[in-house]
């Protein structure tokens, strides 16, 4: 990778129906102290007042593009990266999130060029909910091979956060980024990219991920969550091609899938009936495999939640009969 002290950075802001957040996202991007960057707002044919919110800004570094038709979340990511971004490095800041560190891009680029072969720089972010703010787990600054990152992915400290992850655009284009239209399209792309080089972790909190009812990551539809498991088949195929030993990959993959499946089932229980969790396990079995499914079924949480759901339903039925 050629040494360039100030390579251009593209801050991509894909958005749809986020008029209440978009101004904050743009402002947080434009106050970055790095000397050479562009901000591209890619509006996926929003039916609200997003365009008017963006029009308030007059900064020459800001560009607004409105899609003529709705491409969907992942399609909009892909258009921003492949057709509109011009920087050597890019970061994806969704229109409902924001940076909290004005020096993020500057620090990330400095780290990216501290050692040859780095294709990703990943920092941490806070999670903002209606109940308050959740701070991330701490992780010291370090540089790892992409293979080592994948093998450690069962540990949430090594998870990539879209808004806090700067990546090398030419390398991403070669990896066919955002090729899967699923919930975790960013993880699928970033993990495959990581396997081509090194990942630098930046020990600082650089932004806020705002969780609200419209977040794709809060989707509790069991079919969508089961489909999302396909990212691990894709990533593991790339890992095998990168010559990670199958036994080592299988052991690390099982640990990661147990974590993911627990999270998915927790989401399903929040919004669905008892049987949807089991439908998820059945649909996901080709990827989850016997070891993972048995570990999940052996956990008391599953049966306690099932019992509570059944009792709640039975109690409601009795109440309706009495009324």
UniProtKB/TrEMBL annotation:
Residues 10-161 form the Glycosyltransferase 2-like domain. Pfam families: Glycos_transf_2. It comes from the Bacteria. The lineage of its organism: Bacteria, Pseudomonadati, Thermodesulfobacteriota, Desulfuromonadia, Geobacterales. Coiled coil: none annotated. SUPFAM superfamilies: Nucleotide-diphospho-sugar transferases. This is Glycosyltransferase family 2 protein.
């Amino acid at each position: 990778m050629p040494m360039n002290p100030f390579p251009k950075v593209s801050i991509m802001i894909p958005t749809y129906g986020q008029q209440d957040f978009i101004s904050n996202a743009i402002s947080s991007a434009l106050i970055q102290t790095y000397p050479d960057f562009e901000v591209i707002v890619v509006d996926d044919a929003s039916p609200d007042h997003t365009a008017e919110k963006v029009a308030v800004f007059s900064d020459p570094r800001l560009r607004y593009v409105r899609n003529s038709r709705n491409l969907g979340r992942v399609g909009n990511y892909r258009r921003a990266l492949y057709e509109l971004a011009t920087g050597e490095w890019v970061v994806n800041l969704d229109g409902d999130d924001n940076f909290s560190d004005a020096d993020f891009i500057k620090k990330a680029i400095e780290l990216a060029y501290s050692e040859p072969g780095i294709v990703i720089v990943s920092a941490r972010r806070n999670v903002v909910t209606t109940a308050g703010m959740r701070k991330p787990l701490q992780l010291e600054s370090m540089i790892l091979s992409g293979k080592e990152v994948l093998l450690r992915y069962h540990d949430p400290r090594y998870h990539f956060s879209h808004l806090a992850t700067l990546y090398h655009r030419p390398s991403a284009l070669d990896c066919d980024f955002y090729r899967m239209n699923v919930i975790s399209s960013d993880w699928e792309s970033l993990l495959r990219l990581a396997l081509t080089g090194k990942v630098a972790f930046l020990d600082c909190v650089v932004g806020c991920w705002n969780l609200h009812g419209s977040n794709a990551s809060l989707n509790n539809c069991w079919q969508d969550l089961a489909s999302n498991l396909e990212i691990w088949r894709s990533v593991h195929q790339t890992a095998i091609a990168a010559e990670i030993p199958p036994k080592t990959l299988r052991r690390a993959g099982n640990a990661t899938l147990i974590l993911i499946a627990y999270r998915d089932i927790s989401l399903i229980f929040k919004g669905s009936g008892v049987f949807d969790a089991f439908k998820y396990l059945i649909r996901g079995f080709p990827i989850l495999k016997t070891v993972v499914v048995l570990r999940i079924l052996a956990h008391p949480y599953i049966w306690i939640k099932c019992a509570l759901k059944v009792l709640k339903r039975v109690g409601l039925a009795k109440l309706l009969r009495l009324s």
